Amino acid sequence: MAPLADLYQVSMAYGHWRAGRHRCPAAAELFFRRPPFRGSFALGAGLAEGLRGLRAFRFSAADVAYLRSVLPSTTDDAFFDYLATLDASEVTVTAIPEGSVVFPRVPFLQVKGPLLVVQLLETTLLCLVNYASLVATNAARFRLLAGPDMKLMEMGLRRAQGPDGALSASKYSYIGGFDCTSNILAGKLYGIPVRGTIAHSFVMSFRCLEEVQPRELLPLAGGDPVDLADLAVSWLQRVCDLLQTPPSKASQGELAAFVSYAVTFPCDFQGLLDTYCVRRSGLPNFCAVALALHQLGYQAIGVRLDSGDLAQQSKEIRKVFRACEAHFQVPWFGTIPIAVSNDISEQSLEQFRREVRNLLAQLGCHPGDASRAEMSPGLSLGSEINMIGIGTNLVTCPLQPSLGCVYKLVEVNGSPCLKLTEDEEKMTIPGMKAIYRLYDAAGHPFMDLMALEEEPSPSAGQELGIRVLGRLEETTKVIPTTVEPLHRTYFRDGQVCEPLPSVPEVRTHAQVSLNLLNPVHRRLHEPQPYPVAVTERLHRLFLELRQGSH
Amino acid sequence: MAPLADLYQVSMAYGHWRAGRHRCPAAAELFFRRPPFRGSFALGAGLAEGLRGLRAFRFSAADVAYLRSVLPSTTDDAFFDYLATLDASEVTVTAIPEGSVVFPRVPFLQVKGPLLVVQLLETTLLCLVNYASLVATNAARFRLLAGPDMKLMEMGLRRAQGPDGALSASKYSYIGGFDCTSNILAGKLYGIPVRGTIAHSFVMSFRCLEEVQPRELLPLAGGDPVDLADLAVSWLQRVCDLLQTPPSKASQGELAAFVSYAVTFPCDFQGLLDTYCVRRSGLPNFCAVALALHQLGYQAIGVRLDSGDLAQQSKEIRKVFRACEAHFQVPWFGTIPIAVSNDISEQSLEQFRREVRNLLAQLGCHPGDASRAEMSPGLSLGSEINMIGIGTNLVTCPLQPSLGCVYKLVEVNGSPCLKLTEDEEKMTIPGMKAIYRLYDAAGHPFMDLMALEEEPSPSAGQELGIRVLGRLEETTKVIPTTVEPLHRTYFRDGQVCEPLPSVPEVRTHAQVSLNLLNPVHRRLHEPQPYPVAVTERLHRLFLELRQGSH
Q1: H/E/C letters for each residue in A243-267?
Q2: Nearest of A455, A430, A454 to residue A26 by alpha carbon
Q3: What is the interface size between A and B, counted as CB pairs within 8 Å?
Q4: Nearest CB to A421: which of B127, B197, B307?
Q5: Which of A450, A459, A507, B282: disulfide with B273, CB 3.0–4.6 Å?
Q6: A386 and A515 in contact (C-beta within 8 Å)?
Q7: To the nearest 5 percent, what fractions of chain B are helix, strand and coil?
Q8: Is residue A437 part of a domain?
Q9: Chain B contact present for A285, CB below 8 A
């Protein structure tokens, strides 16, 4: 594939080449300016793919021919010859490990190398890091809301920006804390666990029991095959008696679909309850088939609900399962996992949490307990819902569909650069930097500190005079208990030079990084902004450059 | 590439196969339920890629091996052998031509074939059509707001869902009415015009004029080379005198960058005005270099503004250009194209339109004229802004980041299917259908009508009794002046059987289709919903099936 680039980057490359500046040493940084989703943090992701992009960075003969056709006809031929020789072999990349919590203005990637190549890499890196970090952050927020025990499944394949967008969504949702995906290709390519349940179209494709073929199932413990359709019909009568709902209201097509699925997957039978009426059709039909299966020694693995008031219905479904458990003496029936889907958003999860709170209150819990339960991220959403499938609101990130990372030159030819605009937020911080994360005595990171590369590393336990972004006019004193240098060198001499963790390792690292955060920064609504600071020397450099440009 | 599929689809496929139903004739429809962005319409797009996906539909040996590893171990081996033989050769696809205006509930794709394959194609088709149609619709809205003469450039490469998401964004924005893209690869692959301007990083990479190399330029008409840097410095003095701004406030690095770019691209010189202060640096530096170039016979091609109040600043810039034109007697200077970018959204364009309205009011236009000017889509945004670059808000569609197309079975084994849920909107309309667009005497489409496939086609000029969705309880009479059958057969016997238009042809068709719309449906805010109806026969079928399921 041709390098990802915007045309102006190639025009500028020609400008540099004509000026003989293309091999000037340069450095650029990749960072975002505002944390996404009105939180305080993002998860940095996309590093491994960015490094692969670097390794593959090259203009093919066809790319060069195309560029020749779109650049002005006065462009020097020798420039195109030069383009054909380019690669990233002289580039060095340092970065914060993938899956780490990252903060606004703190570069999570630094690129050094010849000016022309450093500038050409801008779009490749932004394109590979931006969405990856955005969706990983979104997934992490869902995980924080749902608590550690809830199963979270990504199912956004139909809503992503085409096949590759969907693959990125599956991979980075997993990294952000999801458990599995519905996307087979993501499972195949990245080893992410895949899960799937029965769909409405399967249910709708049946009209009556006569269509079920084969209908016989061998009991798990052996014996003669049994007609599962007949058995389910007799169970339906008993279930309907118990639930006081007329069997005639239970869809025959739905029952046929469930029986057919159960004969095919007797150890993995699941029901989708809402193709027709949940209470009078989906639920009795599922219970009938699950009880018939139970009679043959098999255990149903779950149900899914895809419309309506999910929290309310899941309570009613749980009640029915418990009633069946008691009435038919089937010990596992009350705890059949309930999965929900249908446009689940952060707001939905918050609503589920409120339900739990109300439930606790009804159970006579102390209001403080209930309120604490609601406030604390990581709360289980109650026993009614065991798995949540999230598609659109995970992969398209509607609360903020783009992270807005930027890639800015910070040094050329040994001179630091500064972008000073009318827009204070759009200013850059000049110079090649070392980045440190400072931890307090409780083990929480409390500040990220940017220093000039040549400055000595700050020491743990020593007081530092620094300037916090946003209030640069005053010096602040801090004493870190621990100091962690954040960047590692990942790419040098055209090769990845640091072993890259596997996808599950990145996922684990992300949860560790999130857990270290102080709850005041981790909370999703109105978090305390995480302070980012510069050293006094870096601040002086900034002032000098600003002075010089006025 | 493996077929795009969710795991449950393969599980269901196994269910059908085990039941011997995998070759039952079946039909499915692809449609959306609500128009995006609170408008009344969408542009249907992604058909050509969907057809390519069909042609390539096949499970490789590796895909089959992977599926074997994730399906239950009890799965019959012969099923995997069967999967390896599957393709879309028995599938027929009819569709509304790509780029047409499409409405909620009206299928823009119909798929017929063996049940198992029809179901497996669901995700492939949804994934390829959903985002394509969404971003084409978004682009069309920007085009309606900006008017036909404004140049619109797509520049979302960094904000899309990875490289392929970005390519889709470029392609379908172009189809929706954009003029060009910054994305080189999109230019190379789809022949979309590419454009590019100078960027902040180029400007920032210069500190002083000494870095400019080479500095000499040959006058266009011939003669001795001239030091453009010296010439620009002398022009800067004259410009600063005229603008009454001190030359010392103009950044030397920025001037150097402009001179360097002008020497490299003398016929294509553009300025980016806001790396430093627009008024005291960017604008005087640009005018100085442009006037120096003019002295050598060259004409600058434009400026770009990427921060701050774009409407206001572009007015001030235009004023300065006109002042230079008058003072220095350079006839083309007042009309130098001004391009703007920086997070441009529909709201930004609406703000630009309000500015025009105010301007008209100031010029003493009749308030009605001004108000009409503001209301009418297609208004020029005034002479100050000539080109708009849109990235994030185009490609991520933040107003609604997903179209929500669905793919539903409508017939199996000759029997129509109906999904009846508690959620009225989620009901499907059963049976294989023919779709007609009805036009009024003014040539506007006024209704889409769904009929059963076997019904005779409605005739132009004849009264039809139909039922409008949303008020099915009453019969409505309409007399169409023209009746257009909407679907064509695009895929049959494993091949695309209808010549596919080129990307520019689809783009033209989209504008024609939009222009035919009645303004009451076309307007972006609170449009009149476009009526979609069913024939009496289709309505009776729906009632019968609903009856039967209760």
Answers
A1: HCCCHHHCCHHHHHHHHHHHHHCCC
A2: A430
A3: 363
A4: B307
A5: B282
A6: no
A7: 45, 20, 40
A8: no
A9: no
One domain for residues A377 and A422: no
Query: Looking at the structure, do residues B135 and B178 belong to the same domain, yes or no?
Result: no
Per-block average pLDDT, block size 10, for chain B (550 residues)? Answer: 82 91 95 95 97 94 95 93 96 98 96 96 92 97 94 91 88 97 93 88 89 93 96 98 96 96 93 94 98 97 92 93 97 95 90 76 59 43 81 92 91 85 73 97 98 95 95 95 98 94 97 98 96 96 80
Q: Would the CB atoms of B158 and A127 count as touching at under 8 Å?
A: yes
- The SS3 of residue A339 is strand
Specify whether B216 is located in the same domain as B324: yes
By residue range, what is the domain housing residue A213?
148-395
Asked whether the CA dihedral B249, B252, B257, B260 is positive or negative, the reply is positive
Cβ of residue B351 closer than 8 Å to a chain A Cβ: no
CA-based radius of gyration for chain B: 29
Tens-place pLDDT, residues A493-543:
989 999 999 999 999 999 999 999 999 999 999 999 999 999 999 999 999
For residues B18 and B41, state if they share a domain.
Answer: yes
Which CATH number is A410's domain given? 3.20.140.10
Residue A221 in any domain: the answer is yes
A472 occurs within a structural domain: no
Q: CA-based Rg of chain A, rounded to a whole angstrom?
A: 29
pLDDT at A364: 67
DSSP secondary structure string for all residues of A364-430 = T--HHHHHHHHHSTT----TT--EEEE-HHHHS-TT-S---EEEEEEEETTEE-----SSGGG----
Structure tokens at B142: 């920007």
Alpha helices in B107-216 (DSSP H): 115-146, 162-176, 184-190, 200-204
A511's tokens: 């949860």
- Average pLDDT on A364-382 reads 48
Name the phi and psi angles at A451, rounded to 5: -125, 165
Minimal Cα–Cα distance from B209 to chain A, Å? 12
Q: Which two tokens stand for residue B301?
A: 């091609």
Among candidates A166, A400, A549 on the partner chain, residue whose Cβ is nearest the Cβ of B276: A549
Q: Are A57 and A427 in contact (CB under 8 A)?
A: no
Instruction: Enumerate the β-bridge partners of residue A544.
Output: none
* DSSP element (H, E) containing A509: helix A503-516
Residues of A in contact with B79 (CB under 8 A): none
Residue pair A154/A162 in contact (Cβ under 8 Å)? The answer is no
Measured CA angle at B236 (ends B234, B241), to 5 deg: 105
Q: Give the C-alpha separation, B428 to B410, whole Å.
A: 8
The alpha carbon of residue A516 is apart from the nearest alpha carbon of chain B, in Å, by 29
* Beta-strand relationship, A464-468 and A532-535: antiparallel
Quote ipTM for the complex.
0.88
Do B199 and B112 share a structural domain?
A: no
Neighbours of B85 (CB within 10 A): 8
Residue of A nearest to B76 (CA): A264
Quick one: which H or E segment has residue A77?
Answer: helix A77-85
| DSSP structural state of residue B396 | S
Tell me if B301 sits within 8 A of B269, measured CB to CB: yes
CA distances from A393 to A169, A499, B132, B505 (A): 11, 33, 18, 34
CA–CA gap between residue A198 and residue A270 (Å, rounded) = 7
A307 and A237 co-located in one domain: yes
DSSP annotation string for B14-55: HHHHHTT-TTSEEEEEEE-SS-GGGSS-EE---HHHHHHHHH
Strand partners, B433: B452
Integer Cα distance of A8 and B184 in angstroms: 9
Do A219 and A289 share a domain, yes or no? yes
B119 within 8 A of B160, measured Cβ to Cβ: no
Residue type, B348: S
Q: Number of folded domains in chain B?
A: 2
**Is A457 among the domain residues?**
no
